[in-house]
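User: Please check token order:
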Amino acid sequence: MKALNSFGFPVLRFNFRGTGLSQGEHDHGYGEVDDVRVALAWLEKNFRLPLIFSGFSFGAAVGLRAACDDSRVKAMIGLGIPVVPADERSYDFSFLHSCSQPKLFVSGARDQFGPKAKLQETVNSLPEPKKLVLVEGADHFFEGRLRELRDTIQAWVAETLQQNRI
């Protein structure tokens, strides 16, 4: 949020249905995709700026699905994508094979839900432009490494803006 806001982008940060103080009930990733679509529509209506989607873990898994086929989304960032979830959930990222937007994936090198080999396999199978960054020493929540996370996002957004991809 802070990395994107540092470029002057308005940022909408929200909890999915049934999380924290939000209303509704968890829908196992189905209704949550619609939540992201509504959020993207609200941002576009109120700001009329290029949209960059960024999501963390479950939010990345469902949000990337919504952002991938939305022409208003000019770039996508997936943080801590759960390629090996801890519970009965199973995330299929094959929909990303049709995404032409610039994509940044950032995970902790010690992320228990994103082992390096599986992340590399997933990202390598995707179309360009794409980038995978592993933050050394970081776990799934980037504990103690949030500065490196923010620096990575800022550098990628600056590079992507400079290349006129956003």
